[in-house]
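note to self — DONT lose this again. spent like an hour looking for the file last time. sequence + predicted structure for the chain T wanted, 150 res
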Amino acid sequence: MEGFRYVYPVEVRFRDLDVFGHVNNAVVFTYAEIARINYMVAADIRLPHANLQSVAFIAAHLSCDFRNPILYGQSVEVGVGISEVRQSSLRLEHRIEADGELAAEGHCILVRYDYTAGHSIPISTEIRTSIEAFEGISLKSLNAKKSAGD
């Protein structure tokens, strides 16, 4: 999928469908969530079996523009990538394709959070380094692209 270093395949299950025969809008958010978590594990910024002591991020914002329905039996892929890194938050872009055609796109904002203290915390140098290594780009370049409107 063009523009994304990480692509996660999702199998459409019959239970994902609504009365109209296409994947329910709420389930599309689940597809993005599954891909986002797997992206973070692959990028080494989240443990695969996280718990309250190890979960580093909470979702602060989710958005999605639905472009085309997703139907049972279609091949679905979700592209995920980080487009901006701030003091304590990340912006991740999502693109969902069904049989190679755009079905939905959006983004989420994740905030690094300390559950014990009950507040946000800065993104560590280790996480920033992992993002740079996984995305193959410096964070300065990444944030400059975002500021320029790309």
